[in-house]
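Dear Dr. L.,

I hope this message finds you well. Following up on our conversation about the binding site, I have prepared a predicted three-dimensional model of the protein together with LLP. For your records, I am including the exact sequence and ligand specification that went into the calculation, followed by the structure tokens. Please feel free to forward this to your student if that is useful.
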Amino acid sequence: MKPANGPLLARIAEQFGTPCYVYDAAIIRERIEQLRYFDVVRFAQKANSNVHLLKLMREQGVLVDSVSLGELERALAAGYQVADEPCPMVLTADILDRATLDRVVELKVPVNAGSPQMLEQLGEKSPGHRVWLRINPGFGHGHSRKTNTGGESSKHGIWYEHLGEAIELIKRYKLDLVGLHMHIGSGVDYTHLQRVCDAMVEQVKTSGHDIRAISAGGGLSVPYHADQTATRVDTEHYFSIWDKARKQIEAHLGHPVHLEIEPGRFIVAEAGKLLAEVRAKKDVGSNHFVLVDAGFNDLTRPAMYGSYHEISVVSSDGVEKRNPTRPTVVAGPLCESGDVFTVEDGGIVAPRALPDAEIGDLLVFHDAGAYGASMSSNYNSRPLVPEVLVDGDKITLIRRRQTIAELLALENV
Ligand code: LLP
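The resulting structure of the complex is given below.
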């Protein structure tokens, strides 16, 4: 069982209401420290783009990767700026919509290009612009097929056999090639890691172009199951594999190159918990349901990927219940049958042995700091939930709950 700090979480639920996300700054700092071997740690902010967390990252020397205009503006709001190499900000994408193109040209943000058209559209407007090439090496790997970002069925990156054409475009538009980037998916395994490193060395040689940096992408796994702590990536080992590839590249080019890593989940997943209150219980045939006030609009991963999140039960006065007594299906309030948190791979409802939960108890969803709040939505017209940061003794509301009036405001035309 993963530990839940019952008294603290009950106090936060009381003060800010449920559902509510809670983050622990100490865990974020610890994970960043574990990545210190790399020259550059670039946070994939899609995992969690709260401006206050981005500020915390910036203070720790972490750079940032944005994937949209909104994420670029969030990075700026957190104090990130465009500067020399390694540039604190980069935009990674497979297309440039018009508004994003205008903004990256104005800001001079380096662009990690995932399609030839991005190079053409950028080159026409902004000759000399700094670019990275995101390469699809022809294979991928993910914790779910939806998070595999390489191979023939992935829309991401420039297909490895088309590197030559991309280099031609870079020359034609006099773009400034910073480096090559590969991210094959989320949930690293070492077999694939070695393949990616080999592919990176091969691509640098094939390109026939000088570069100043390589990016290992993100994808470092975290132990979502309590008994899987061994699956947390050994960052020193991970680095050593990439470092060998880097040295081969340096030998080929005859000068040093920066080695970047671009994790999202590894830095924030374990730092975050989603708190929800038990509001109803019912027995449906052989299934015992516990219904909480958070739904898949708040935490999408179980419904979307069949992902596992540990669940703790805490009484309203902060006592953690530790004895799993009965198989329980935990579900949310949405008017949709798939609004279930206890699922197996493929999204099949899977009762889980949990302590007996009373109405008013808190359910704590662990490891919800990555792709939790950032993937939440207003489905069923439910407002976005608050986010709270715990830093030692300090408890700060870093996003307030959205109001219903704010939901309606866009339609008051
Ligand atoms: N870099 C690039 C180019 C990416 O596409 C991603 C993730 C990352 C870095 C960070 O990957 P991470 O280290 O967080 O695994 N919503 C899914 C994950 C989608 C990841 C998409 N790209 C989930 O909840 O598991």
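In brief: Residues 270-409 form a domain with the Lyase, Ornithine Decarboxylase; Chain A, domain 1 fold (CATH 2.40.37.10).

With kind regards,
A. P.
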